[in-house]
Amino acid sequence: MADQSIPEARNPETTRRASDGPGPLDSGGTTAPEGISRRRLLGTAGATGLVLGAAGAAAGYAAAPSSAATPLTSLGSERAMFHGKHQPGITTPMQARGHLVAFDLAAGAGRKEAAALLRRWSDTARRLMAGEPAGTRDTDVARDAGPSSLTLTFGFGHSFFGRTGLEKQRPVALDPLPDFSSDHLDKNRSNGDLWVQIGADDALVAFHALRAIQQEAGSAARIRWQMNGFNRSPGTTAHPMTARNLMGQVDGTRNPKPADADFDQRIFVPEAPGSGKGGPAWMANGSYAVVRRIRMLLDDWEKLSLKAQEDVIGRRKSDGAPLSGGSDATETTEMDLEKTDGSGKLVVPINAHARITRPDQNGGAAMVRRPFSYHDGFDADGVPDAGLLFICWQADPLRGFVPVQRKLDRGDALSQFIRHEASGLFAVPGGASEGEYVGQRLLEG
């Protein structure tokens, strides 16, 4: 788990209220036109709750809703956009609930069937993210809810290109990840032809999307594996802050931020065709997702003293400040890797996780981490099956994830308390324009 994690603050560039822009109410603000569902009316009627901006400050309030509709809370009314330069779910603020699911194309299914499937999935995603029913077979699970920051993100695995006869379009960056010494991978829960990431701030909205995607797969694809995750719900803390993981640690502080001058070149494939970075033209504005199911050995971890836990990470557990910072340090205080204590020992141990994962210790390697925690029960001895659904985004995994993980393999103090149990690498194309489906430039190019 690299020392980088996207903050929970709401980002107005990627998430907006359903009341922003045209809604179902007519110009008089009284009635909804025919054909607009009750769910969409609720999902776009507006709210009076607080919206948090990227910096964590109050950005303002929505206008008071019409008395003709019951307003949703701010949590339910927030909406992410399906169409755009990049797919949603990459820079979208972390959501409270998540589902990851991989599919394999059915025997005999090829490029034609894949194109039809992505067209169906894209249409379903557009509807659900707008707070509308999925279609004629909608299950009504999310009937009373708004968009709830729902996002659906689609990607292609290495095997997809052979199944569809598109081997020449497979990016070099999608070559299989190397083996790592910490791997204990279950092949049945790894990789896949197609990958879908679902996130939302409401559990029913997230499940509704998962079920809709599975139904729309029809006979074209079958589920290979599926995982469920969660994060802290927005509004739980007094102010937006970096998330904590199941070890109780503030999980990541040095995540690249969209405001950084070099953010796009680190995270997204450039638009220029033939640039040699990240892949072919169809991947322009896309990114690569590394997905790892990382089990935390919590029984062993929780036996450590607070000081021992902090030495493993290199940061204070209470607030995420570096151990080198002193009493007035904060989470964003720069870490002093050379600082020693009175006995001459490094204050931040040489094998501390935060030291090893720093970009400046890895040739500038950087990635956006956007994980979910998971808990899948207990085994017969009461040992929790819990940990992190690690998801990281980068323009090229060979320059992002791989060098950092190789260094972690060689001496990370955290490695004895975690186990990598599943893995996947997926090419996630750029966002779909109006009237386009995700992956169209690959499948119809």
Task: Output the keywords.
single chain, 445 residues, alpha+beta, five-stranded antiparallel β-sheet, four-stranded antiparallel β-sheet, 11 helices, 13 strands, 19% helix
Number of E-type strands: 13
Summarize the amount of helix as a percent range: 10-25%
The termini sit apart by: 37 Å
Low-pLDDT stretches are: 4-9, 11-15, 19-69
Report the sheet with the most strands, covering strand number, pairing sense and barrel closure.
5 strands, antiparallel
Mean pLDDT: 86
Structural class call reads alpha+beta
Which percent range describes the beta-strand content?
15-25%
Oligomer: single chain
Compute the number of helices. 11
Order of helices and strands: EHEEHEEHEHEHEHEHHHEEEHEH
Give the overall shape, derived from the CA principal axes.
Answer: globular
Radius of gyration equals 22 Å
Nutshell version of this structure?
19% of the residues lie in helices and 19% in strands. The chain is α+β, with helices and mostly antiparallel strands and 445 residues long.
